[in-house]
Design a protein that fits this description.
- By secondary structure, the protein is an alpha+beta fold.
- It has a single domain, classed as Phosphatase 2c, domain 1 (4-Layer Sandwich).
- Helix content is 32%, strand content 27%.
- A hairpin with a 4-residue loop joins strand 2 and strand 3.
- This is Protein phosphatase.
Length: 251
């Protein structure tokens, strides 16, 4: 049986710019979407909410699931086009954009497909522990390669002013990088869609996120609350918004 829960925290920011959406279709498919907006307080909120709304609206109209990856790409493109219209209608929104994680899950087979843009992480918890399964479209990945190649000292990575910049986002125009993937949920597995605010917690195979998900594995809502509480307990002075969707299969 597929269950899901969601939750958000504003952190230390003046406004919530993360948005989430989830729904069950009448053809045994489930849709989950998360977006982390940017571009000023108003712009970030509008960008993320527009993407989530339009992404789900696409699947309400298109339920032929013969090619899930193509559908995810079309849903992303439709949402991106809606974002472009809003930018063109209001000059103050020209700088807005958002990340995206979109997941399409077939309940009976437990096979899922995803599309992602930006740095929002998509995790799968399995018997092997917690693993990020989508690409991180962030400049820090290039910096890590420079460290590995000996072109940068590890200490420089920690202080590089561009380390948290993202290399791809939905902004109404061309999308620089898009990641597609597929997987299957085994009994007891969890999928966690998150904005990068969750990365205040350690996310290794046996890190803090994994420990909380394992401890609260029988109650998705409690797991969401425990994760948000754990982020708040870190008391980071500039804590970002955190948004989560937890998808659970089996005990």
């Amino acid at each position: 049986m597929i269950k899901s829960s969601e939750g958000k925290s504003i952190g230390k920011r003046p406004e919530q710019q993360d948005s989430v959406g989830r729904m069950q279709l009448d053809n045994d498919f489930y849709v989950y979407v998360l977006a982390d907006g940017m571009g000023g307080e108003r712009g970030g909120r509008i960008a993320s909410s527009t993407i989530c709304k339009e992404f789900m609206a696409f699947f309400e109209k298109n339920k032929d699931m013969d090619n899930p990856e193509k559908l995810l790409e079309q849903a992303m493109s439709a949402a991106n086009a809606a974002l472009r219209e809003k930018r063109e209608e209001d000059y103050d929104l020209m700088g807005m954009g958002t990340t995206l994680i979109g997941v399409l899950l077939h309940g009976p087979s437990r096979i899922f497909h995803f599309v992602s843009v930006g740095d929002s992480p998509l995790y799968q918890l399995s018997s092997d522990g917690l693993k990020r399964i989508n690409a991180n479209h962030a400049y820090i990945e290039e910096l890590k390669k420079m460290v590995e190649d000996g072109r940068m000292h590890p200490e420089e990575l920690k202080t590089d002013p561009a380390r948290n910049d993202i290399t791809s986002a939905l902004m109404g125009g061309n999308i620089e990088e898009v990641d597609f993937g597929t997987g299957i949920l085994e009994s007891g597995d969890r999928l966690l869609l998150a904005s990068d605010g969750i990365q205040t917690l350690s996310d290794g195979p046996q890190g803090e996120i994994a420990a909380i998900l394992k401890e609260k594995r029988r109650d998705s809502e409690s797991a969401i609350l425990a994760l948000l509480d754990a982020v708040a307990d870190k008391e980071e002075p500039y804590q970002d918004n955190t948004a989560l969707i937890l998808v659970a299969y089996g005990d």
